[in-house]
Design goal:
Structural class of chain A: alpha/beta
Order of helices and strands of chain A: HEHEEEHEEEEEHEHEEEHEH
Distance between the termini of chain C: 44 Å
Structural class of chain C: alpha/beta
CATH topology of chain A: Glutaconate Coenzyme A-transferase
CATH class of chain A: Alpha Beta
Number of domains of chain A: 1
Largest interface: A-C, 68 and 77 residues
CATH superfamily of chain A: Glutaconate Coenzyme A-transferase
Radius of gyration of chain A: 18 Å
Oligomer: heterotetramer
Strand order of the largest sheet of chain A: 2-1-5-10-11-12-13-14
Number of helices of chain C: 13
Helix content of chain C: 25-40%
Amino acid sequence: MPEKDRYKYSNREMMAIAAAREVKNGDIVFCGTGISMLAAMAAKNINAPLSTIFFETGAIDAKLEELPLAVADSRVMYKTAVNGGLAEAFATMQNRFTGSRVVGILGAAQIDIYGNLNSTAIGDYRQPDVRFSGSGGACDVASFVNRTIIFMQHEKRKFVKKLDYFTSPGWIDGPAGRKKAGLPPGGPAAVITNLGVMRFDRNSKRMYLAATYPGITSAEIQAETGFDLDSERAEEFTPPTAHELRILRERCDPQGLILKTPS
Amino acid sequence: MPEKDRYKYSNREMMAIAAAREVKNGDIVFCGTGISMLAAMAAKNINAPLSTIFFETGAIDAKLEELPLAVADSRVMYKTAVNGGLAEAFATMQNRFTGSRVVGILGAAQIDIYGNLNSTAIGDYRQPDVRFSGSGGACDVASFVNRTIIFMQHEKRKFVKKLDYFTSPGWIDGPAGRKKAGLPPGGPAAVITNLGVMRFDRNSKRMYLAATYPGITSAEIQAETGFDLDSERAEEFTPPTAHELRILRERCDPQGLILKTPS
Amino acid sequence: MNSRDDKVTTLDRAINLLVPDGCHLSIGGFTINRNPMAAVYEVIRQRKKELHLYAHSNGQGVDELIGGGCVKRLEIAYAGSGRFAPTCIRFRKAVENGTLEVEDYSNFQMTLRFMAGAMGVPFLPTRSGLGTDIIKKWGFSEDLRTADEKLPDRKLAIIDNPFGNWSETPKLVLVPAINPDVTIIHVQQADKRGNARIQGLTFADVEQAKAARHLIITCEELVEEEFMRQEPDRNQISFLNVDAVIHIPWGAYPTACYRHYDYDPDHLNRYRAAAADEFRYRTYLEEKVFNLKDHREFIAQTNSEQLKKLIADPETGYAKALKRSGE
Amino acid sequence: MNSRDDKVTTLDRAINLLVPDGCHLSIGGFTINRNPMAAVYEVIRQRKKELHLYAHSNGQGVDELIGGGCVKRLEIAYAGSGRFAPTCIRFRKAVENGTLEVEDYSNFQMTLRFMAGAMGVPFLPTRSGLGTDIIKKWGFSEDLRTADEKLPDRKLAIIDNPFGNWSETPKLVLVPAINPDVTIIHVQQADKRGNARIQGLTFADVEQAKAARHLIITCEELVEEEFMRQEPDRNQISFLNVDAVIHIPWGAYPTACYRHYDYDPDHLNRYRAAAADEFRYRTYLEEKVFNLKDHREFIAQTNSEQLKKLIADPETGYAKALKRSGE
């Protein structure tokens, strides 16, 4: 009997667990609100107990007894190692010694094949069809840190050939892109969507399909992607285990604030 | 009967009071250790009760129940408005709104006719005959703030045509000097020595003799000055009053730590 | 900035005096925490117009000022209220309708810009944004920048590192200083001279405060100066920077104030619903802002049972087990 | 930098491991307060050589490292111990004898250099020093700078403001970042993971700590992590930056440690007298450093009546009415 038949899980749970598995023990995990925070909490509670959750607002290693609904939620201030401010938080990521230990978890409205992100606007920048929140700390994190993990809804209009607005740097335009731009090394490591997991080719820095979720085909993913996605290396993703799900649900989001709310 | 015969005062007391009188009510007073701190305390206790004593170490409006022997003395930390650090303290002076309200009290090993200071070295910079402590915050204060008051021992080798090392900017080389260098306006207002008080000509920005202490002649002061000192405008200095002296001695330095120690 | 010994005043007077139409304003707080909401509502109530607004990641306060029709131009990194509005709704409408000019920066860039203003330098350097449209696309036109002497002529500048590859950094983004005409922040404690203490995360409030020509502080608690001086290590802002102090309990409501009260999820959800609809938003403004005399009246009108639920648990600093989901 | 959960070690081991000969070292503290003296004596005791030392206004610690023969090059703003030595004596002798190379900056410049290192940028800007010899005269030769890859090629750089006259600032001094191989600071409280709390003025310790590749913290009190987390607003340094934690009561002696003890005027006066004379200084080094096993022994040897007089009054944080005048 296949493991996955023994319990049900939602797409969002799958995504949170997929991202949590990317976190290594000892990582400093920069996260935002919503699913990225949940993934960071899951990682710390499951596979990376020595990882440190870190918010751009300045909270280092928050206890998170309840799930914050914003990175400035008072819940991130409780029993931290240090309560500082934005200046210190971003400096920690730009700092050459600590920055290289940070993994950033980001989301966006659009992504291109090099993992560059748009979280600012659709259409003309000065009078957009759709306006989003803007960079926040995303551009900073994507500029500074060693590794980023990106959450996306997998839709053709979001996986685009060309971003309407280029908010946060991925690999820019290929292997020399970041260096040419003047950015430190490091860049996106994985894109986690509701359909599968994408990674970036070591040489070309182009996105490829690394894993499909159970029941999803490469062709279905390609159909939802606005550029050609190499699927040669695609494997089937190992779904969340009962243990992972239990911790995610019971310890990380017992109120269902993220797992059960429409995004 | 002249007032001054009714009590005795030392040169150092005269200097402290002379500097204290330069402080205006509402000024933010940057001071160092020794006589400059004493002058700031005297001003606050005598003529400028709303002035604020401010140390480069980050202490704002310290209570100073005992006289500190260094600007990092724990005595400056007691009941301040804020205990910060160096970064905040110097930023307050470079800040365009607060900086313009700061008066800095400085000392030096050498001074020139434009009020530029040397507190670094005598002789060749790389292998000096005499090495001093170096700038500390003096160069910063002299660069940023609206007005400085300078304490000097009046000796020919200290009032020089050319500084051996130019540590802290006064008027540089005349009325356009600071602007040419890229510095904000403001600059030295008075030089207070053991012989008299010098000021700077409004137009030429050259030092002139503004006041001689009782019993001291302009010629005696010129003899101790390594450049020509205009003495046309010199008046006799009004010596410390009994009230000023009492507060200086009893409230500011009851242990005689500054007033009774060789400098 | 002044040296008066007692700066306590009313919000009505402070806003009237220090926030003229068209002024360059900065407000503290972050998304749904410690926004100076009492002051925001007073600015709207006084029908201030054409404000040039600066924030980094301010959600509720920025959105209400925009919704209230007070803001002409905005420089910001992130206009969102966390899970309550991933993109602020009145902000979004205003940008899409072309009624609000926006200049985008990153969060660190905005922080550095306030820090530069506080430090008295014209810019600070960072590596953030190299290669992106934050560098290339400017929201404000060059003409506007040239014409307005309160704006730097460039959004930012790129320079080669004058120290070669020192710090392994070949080039940098320089972001220009902000010196707002006035900054408004809400703090937990202040004394009548203006010494102020923020509890919990400070966000960029301290930099915003020190960058400004004038500073208005609203506080939950107005305490004795002696109390503030007992523990000066915990104070961030001294009287040197402060112009006005206003005592307003619940002054950050409906956003949170750590150790005092939580954000009000019900109110924020109702706000979101109202903000999405022009008619309902008009009604909201009339009922919750224009028809009320002041913040005290707003708080008095608010369901007291609900307020009680928001009061912070003394141990954690927030309202434990507060019902926060759904509409 | 590491993620170990227990970084408590001995000073002997930490210095041995993290302070090799020739390394670039930075020490915290200011003149006669909170110098990491126990660590300074251990560095001397281990006869470290050719150190490249960074400080801003460090008096006693810098002077003893120089006197102990450990320092080849020094970058500093102010080498003095307040009224106890307006110019540090062994420093002065070493410079006048040509045995110490010095690069001079101002206090703010040094602070900005550490801050740049902490922030991860190659420089920070200031207006300080324009027109002076701090800009024009370089202590380290261009050849040395070019040859040593741990030094920037220039002492500093002057640039025109790329934003025109924005902030009324036509030009600026850029000072290069410092990233020491190791920084040592002494704090009042730390836990075993390295979370640290400084009481009173922080000087530039926090910037020095965060700029460094490795960080050694000595502390007066080693406390439970839970204690540190009860009031995280009061902590300045997190475990993320820390390599080693060493519990050393009286670790700043003979300099002061606010809220714990005062500086020792008698010892500092005796030090000054010894420092002025070659023979007496040799004797001082033998008796007070080389012949002692560690700081504990140094403290045990010190007159306990005198130590008692130095203990801080709980109200003011210093030793009230301590006899401080004369020799």
